[in-house]
Design goal:
Layout (H helix, E strand, L loop, with lengths): L14 H20 L19 H9 L1 H4 L7 H5 L1 H10 L1
Length: 91
């Protein structure tokens, strides 16, 4: 005769047992979303419209910061677009 609460045997499912399969499943969807399978990389495309920000892009690509590989995502926030354009005009 057993008195009290019996301990159940078996697997313990914690957060990791959910997180690992979830991350593996999401990784496939993210890769499919950002993959190049939907694009023909050998085909040129033409875009039509008014070009309004070519100068800033050219200045960014010609900047020493970019050429030295030190460009960050907040570069324009820190330096300002007019400073980048002014530096490009001096060169």
């Amino acid at each position: 005769m057993t008195v009290g609460i019996e301990k159940k045997r078996g697997w313990r499912f914690g957060a990791a047992s959910f997180a690992v399969p979830f991350c593996v499943g999401v990784a496939g969807a993210v890769h499919a979303h950002h993959g190049v399978a939907n694009f023909d990389l050998n085909k040129d495309i033409a875009l039509e419209g008014v070009i309004t920000n070519v100068a800033i892009h050219q200045a960014l690509l010609a900047s020493d910061t970019f050429l030295e590989g030190k460009m960050t995502t907040n570069f324009l926030d820190r330096v300002g677009g007019s400073a980048v354009l002014a530096a490009a005009a001096r060169t």
